[in-house]
Write a structure and sequence with these properties.
By secondary structure, this protein is an all-alpha fold. Helices cover 79% and strands 0% of the residues.
Length: 252
């Protein structure tokens, strides 16, 4: 594909993404995506499938106690997960199938990686993982409900942050604060609050790395706990958005 690096830097990144991917993932993912787009015929779907394979490898490695190998595989998963969407935007291909595969793959792989780490861990770690997975479940349920309510109300916007959605939210203080933070961070193209991406990196890469280096599982307790705390703002926000949309639809 005949494309310049400047074009890739402009077209590949999302307009808004997690701060971790913007500041740490993109500096590596964008040059690699450029090389793939410029010199290979690799497709975005192929990268998504590779992302799932790396994740499965990480789950197996963690389950047998090979923490360094699991960390390496999961870092590759993180890197490929950052590249598949970028390559899709560069090639301007229909992203429906790849997006669905990516979404389903993330859910399956996250579950298996948690199981792998729990097998190598203890009851305390398993309990913390169950709390984190429960929070992730609540986020997905609230988000799915919000999109369904948006379709039922014939809302044209596909984003939760838009002028159309702002009118619907009304006087919600929580959402008003989120909008304020969103506008302040708009110039950097980052989301104002932590997301599942930051939690996943802490739990699946940083935590196991420190655990491996120190041979102390207590570090995993710490990083999973931090991941749980970082997930709370998104959980609350997703719930408030779903509730507000449901209330708005009831009025109409």
């Amino acid at each position: 594909m005949n494309i310049t690096y400047a074009e890739v830097k402009k077209r590949a990144p999302k307009s808004r993404d997690t701060w971790f991917r913007k500041l740490i993932g993109d500096p590596v993912a964008i040059p690699l995506t450029y090389l793939l787009a410029r010199y290979t015929e690799v497709t975005p779907v192929a990268l998504t499938k590779a992302t799932i394979i790396w994740g499965l490898g990480a789950a197996i490695a963690f389950a047998i106690g090979a923490l360094p190998l699991g960390i390496f595989f999961h870092y590759l998963r993180f890197l490929f997960d950052a590249m598949d969407g970028k390559l899709s935007r560069i090639k301007q291909e229909d992203d429906t199938y790849r997006g669905a595969l990516d979404f389903l793959g993330d859910g399956i792989v996250d579950t298996l990686v948690v199981i792998g780490l729990a097998i190598h861990g203890d009851k305390t770690l398993l309990t913390l993982f169950l709390i984190w997975m429960s929070i992730s479940f609540l986020i997905h349920r609230s988000t799915s409900l919000s999109y369904r309510l948006m379709q039922q109300s014939n809302i044209k916007s596909k984003e939760f942050v838009s002028p159309e959605m702002e009118k619907i939210y009304g006087n919600s203080r929580i959402i008003a604060l989120y909008y304020k933070l969103t506008r302040k961070t708009e110039k950097w193209g980052i989301n104002p609050i932590p997301s599942a991406a930051e939690s996943s990196v802490l739990i699946f890469i940083v935590g196991p790395l420190v655990w491996s280096l120190t041979n102390s599982i207590q570090w995993m307790y710490l990083f999973v706990s931090i991941g749980i705390i970082l997930s709370l703002p998104v959980t609350i926000g997703a719930g408030v958005i779903a509730y507000t949309l449901a209330k708005s639809g009831d009025k109409n």
